Amino acid sequence: MNLEELYKKIEIYFKQQQELNADIYLDKEIIALDFVLHEIENHTKKRLEEIKEGKELEQMKLDNIDDNFFLFDEEPEWKASTSLSELHNKIHRCTECPLGFSRQNFVFGAGNPNADIMIIGEAPGADEDELGEPFVGKAGQLLTKILKAIDLEREDVYIANIIKCRPPKNRVPTLFEVTKCEPYLKKQIELINPEYILALGLTAVETLLKKKFKMAEIRGKLFNYENKKMIVTYHPAALLRNPIHKKEVWEDVQLLRKMYDEFLSNK
Question: Which one of 45, 103, 152, 219 counts the least CB within 10 Å of its CB?
Fold first, then answer.
């Protein structure tokens, strides 16, 4: 990792702390910031400009930093997990972003670890944070009804979120939080290896496809994500706020059911 990347990493962290009006800072981030500031003092203004422009970036000399220092771990231990339970055990104490300090529970995911269908939402709410399970509040109850309407039980699918910890006041997750948490979700998808993904809401689909969308333009359409068929529809929470979208959601999940039936018939 070069100086510019390290500096940006620390800068993003402290901006995140500012957003949350937090007064708690990780000791390791403080150490890293001090280290970066020390390096910056040794550079001229011209050199800093060159670094920002990406010219002749100097590699940091990290001999005095523990090899396990989290900022420089190229391959975290959890990436070698071969099961969901192993992955959960390795990441459920995560404090990679400030949400790790404000949560009650780490909401990993729930359902069939061998599911053909994986459902991905945005983030835990208050009920999920309290119970440590995804989609257990009002939106979750509606999701259960939607699944039953297409002859699926929660135990038939696997349910997870882009973010594992509840954002304060149920706000939309920040880019920093998504960046820290998405790798966990990608590992879950890798381990489950579903045939289909049902993405609930814009945060889910935009995170997975790395592109901005308008829900009205993409719902009910088929996308490819890592060689998996993905359908997008409204998040159940949005449906509770705007029941006018009920018809569209019903059409979308019927499409999912139709494709799944075709898959089963050819299995």
Answer: 45
Strand ranges in the chain using DSSP code E only, listed in sequence order? 110-111, 117-121, 158-161, 196-200, 222-225, 228-233
For 49, counting Cβ atoms within 10 Å of its Cβ (0-12 exposed, 13-18 middle, 19+ buried), the class is: exposed
Q: Is residue 159 part of a domain?
A: yes
pLDDT one-digit tens code per residue, 6-24: 656 676 766 666 565 554 4
Q: Is 206 exposed, middle or buried (0-12, 13-18, 19+ CB in 10 A)?
A: middle
Q: What range does the domain containing 151 cover? A: 107-265
CA dist., res. 136 & res. 10, Å (int): 35
116 and 41, same structural domain?
no
Same domain membership, residue 144 and residue 36: no
Report the CATH number that the domain containing residue 212 is assigned in CATH. Answer: 3.40.470.10
How far apart CA 228 and CA 261 sit, in angstroms, is: 16
pLDDT digits (tens, 9 = 90+) for 130-184: 999 999 999 999 999 999 999 999 999 999 999 999 999 999 999 999 999 999 9
Nearest Cα residue to 116 out of 174, 225, 194, 179: 194
Question: Distance (Å, rounded) from C-alpha 107 to C-alpha 194?
Answer: 20
Q: Do 172 and 255 fall into the same domain?
A: yes
Structural domain total, the chain: 2
